[in-house]
Amino acid sequence: MRKKSKELLDNLNKIIEKPKLKFEENFESYTNRHYISTIHKLPTSYDKAKRYKDEYDEEYIKIDRVYGGLHEHQLRQKDNTLYKGKLYNKKRLVKNETDDKNFYSKCTVTTDGRWFDNCGLPIEPPKEVEVEKKEKEEHINEMWSSEPKEKKEKIELSMLKKLK
Questions:
Q1: How many helices (H) and strands (E) in the chain?
Q2: Beta-carbon contacts of residue 114 (< 8 Å; ≥ 6 apart)
Q3: Lowest CB count within 10 Å: 6, 59, 89, 113, which one?
């Protein structure tokens, strides 16, 4: 191959290459630092984590953290790499300590079993998790099936009464 044609092919290969994204580079993230406190209790897997000192001589450990918004989530691990596996959304039952009422809180779960709260901080796996129900879809399928007209009307009326 001639020298000039080889240069052209090399330049074409450079054009095809995908550019490196800025967030894929390893960098020290301040938000992945967890300063030792009693406000947020970390899972027991972090008890023996290596401790570091910041510029003000305060002690911290590096943690995994989930970032994202409504549509996309990503997990930045303690070694500052992005998690390549799938993240799942679940709900956990939490007891309010002030008035002893229960409520559901959104959680994120990795395929390898790590749990994160709605702030993206690591937590222990909860004891009670809500299972996704598909009652609404089944009810809609029943309504539009080949049933007698009177039964369909009763189902529609019961649905309307529930809306009030």
A1: 3, 10
A2: 64, 122
A3: 113
CB of 91 closer than 8 Å to CB of 105:
yes
What pLDDT, on a 0 to 100 scale, did the predictor assign at position 131? 59
Q: pLDDT tens, 89-142?
A: 888 888 888 888 888 888 899 999 899 998 889 999 888 776 555 444 445 555
Furthest C-alpha separation in the chain: 83
Q: Where does 17-101 have alpha helices with state H? A: none
How high is the pLDDT of residue 19? 63
Domain ranges of the chain: 20-132, 133-164
CB 90 within 8 A of CB 130: yes
Burial class (CB in 10 A: 0-12, 13-18, 19+), 60: middle
Between helix 149-163 and helix 135-143 the angle, nearest 10°, is 140
Q: List the structure tokens of 98.
A: 């002030």
Rg of the Cα trace of the chain?
26
Cα four-point dihedral sign 115, 122, 90, 130: positive
- The residue with tokens 């007698």 is 148
Amino acid 137: pLDDT: 46
Contact 65, 34 (CB under 8 A): no
